[in-house]
Amino acid sequence: MLFLEALWFFLPILAANQCPGFAAYLHLPGAHAPVIRRWLGENKTIAAYYAAPLGSLGVIYAQRQMTEWSSAFGLFDYNRSDLWLVGLLLGLGAVLGDHIKSFIKRRVGIPPGAHWWPFDQLDFAIGGIVFAIPIVGWIGWERAAVICLFVLLIHPIGNRIGYLLGLRKVPW
After folding, report:
1. Which pTM does this prediction carry?
2. Is there a contact between 51 and 23 (Cβ–Cβ < 8 Å)?
3. Which of 72, 127, 128, 138 has its CB 3.0 to 4.6 Å from that of 13, i.e. a possible disulfide?
């Protein structure tokens, strides 16, 4: 049950992390415009700040429609009136986690696109979890550990598929 609860909570964060790549693939506004090239590198774009929250919102409202699953695995009430805020925070947390990691990566001298394990995998998950705390509370260390383990195992596979499909510039 713990595993399913953690993954159910994680789905909007995962969607948020993938949406900036889709925005770039679709050439949406701001999808190729760096936020701050000098601090974050070329690949952190303005589109992430709308694409990630929209992706997260889409998934969280889809989860709301799956009432049996949301009741069984949800860590909060999916019928709450501020569900939009939960989705927004999960999406923004994913983006800011990634951007904060990229800022630190540049400061320690790691070039853009270079592999930095495990931080390249965990950044968005930790950001999403942390940003959700003020509104849904702490999900627990066990669930956070399950999410991090899932990310470390599955994220490289997803990235490799995205790279092969031309959605990512690097396979990690």
Report:
1. 0.86
2. yes
3. 128
Tokens 């900036």 locate to 20
Among residues 70, 172, 75, the alpha carbon closest in space to that of 128 is found at: 75
In the predicted model, what is the mean pLDDT of the chain?
89
Report the alpha-carbon angle 60-158-152, nearest 5: 85
Place of tokens 């991090």: 148
Backbone angles phi, psi at 34, to 5 degrees: -60, 145
Q: Are 159 and 18 in contact (CB under 8 A)?
A: no
- Name residues of the chain where pLDDT drops below 50: none
**Separation between Cα atoms, residue 138 and residue 145, nearest integer Å:** 13
Across 96-124, b (16+ Cβ under 10 Å) vs e yields: bbbbebbeebbeeebebeeebeebbbbbb
Question: What is the torsion angle, in degrees rounded to the nearest 10, for the CA atoms of residue 72, residue 74, residue 75 and residue 76?
Answer: -120
In one letter, which amino acid is 55?
G
